Amino acid sequence: MIHLEISVSDGRSQYITCKLQNCSDGNRGKPFPGFIIPNSLVVQDEYVFIQVPVGGQSVHYVSYKRNAFYPMKLPKYTLPKDLQIISTDDNQVVAAIQDWHQNDSYNLYMSESRGLFFTLMLESVVSSRGPEGNVMIDLYEVAGIKGVFLSNKVVENQVKTYITYNKGRDWHLLRAPAADLQGNKLDCEQPHCSLHLHLHVSENPYTSGNIVSKDSAPGIIIASGVVGAELTNTNVSIFITGRRWEHLERDLPGGVQHLLPEPRRISGGHPTHAAAN
């Protein structure tokens, strides 16, 4: 089964499904009977997300396990002007929502298994625009360990890095290394001083981003960042964590991707990407 969004008139689209072998008009299904906002269809794991125009506003709907659509229930006083689906792992939806008063940050929310009811996970997460205008949220899911996320949050006009080990229930500042590259002791005590990381991941598979972790090396994170009161672009170093964070070396122009070995690949395996059941 494939999932399609087709344009039917100015500013209106429809969500249809059909079998790959036969997608003629007579063999199309309409899981949602009405019109949807163009470019709002997201099919991810067990969930289908759409946006529906209601009274001049956009209402977000979700379908779980391809059942009926229901409006997503956000906490009271949440007035979203944008919503981005971040993750649908482990039968939970993590969504980034930009509230009406926010410009360069989003709030993170997590749902129960159906993706209907959401609770606040973390406020004021840094956001930016990618090269093609896409929204980039400063949230990084660590590979190899479930429930571990890093995020950059705005706190009193400063950007600070936080980590959670239980999928957002509790967040903590990162403890800085005990010493610098020369072995000199670092005087860095929380909450006034901690380790802050750049969390951008490259969209180009041939170039590296600022942070890397892999399923083949669980518990190992390599990232560029700084020690101090907030995240900056000056005096950047490379840091690695195993049992604790340590300096690795000064920042590298080529990024950090090459510092973790590639896992052994099995011949004949090819990744695929499709919006299908």
From TrEMBL:
Cellular component annotations (GO), alphabetically ordered: Golgi apparatus; membrane
Protein origin, superkingdom: Eukaryota
VPS10 domain residues: 1-277
Pfam families documented for this protein: Sortilin-Vps10
Entry keyword set: Glycoprotein, Repeat
GO biological process: post-Golgi vesicle-mediated transport
Record bears the keyword Glycoprotein: yes
Name of the protein in its database record: VPS10 domain-containing protein
